[in-house]
Amino acid sequence: MPTINAYIGLGSNLGDRAGHLLLAVRGMMNAGLAVARLSSIYETEPVDALTNNPLDLNAQPLFLNMIAELSGALPPPEQLLARLLRIEYALGRRRPVAHAARTIDLDLLLYGDKQQRTEFLTLPHPRLHLRRFVLTPLVELAPHREHPVLHQTFSQLLAAAEDKSEVKIWQPI
Length: 173
What we know:
The protein has one domain: Alpha-Beta Plaits (2-Layer Sandwich), CATH 3.30.70.560. It is built from 4 helices and 8 strands. By secondary structure, the protein is of the alpha+beta class.
């Protein structure tokens, strides 16, 4: 089987955020996925959340985000997504409403250079080039890799991003 590199976005803003990220990485490994590299962990402002207004009772806590690079003989994209969704569920992720706070979020961002659009999966992830919390750790792992549709490197996309939300290396206390 050919070697494929896939990139998974991980995020958590409920409970033990760092613990959820690490359990998700372990879950990927236990699911037979070869985790080749991990980005640093970044603390980020909620983007597209129900609200991030600190005066709002529904305001969300900050996220911890990172990227995992998978490499090797990976299952097809739909099967990979199914494994990621099972890991989310095992870690307590429920989806009562869109964009709510979450224990863990696993997004299949890239699967090689594959492009597809189905009812269940769009590759590359349709908003990855718009989000600083995705681009910053992606640039750490693959700064010169080109977006398969936009044909710009992730470094170029980050430099041009209109998203000005704060993304900083996480410093555990």
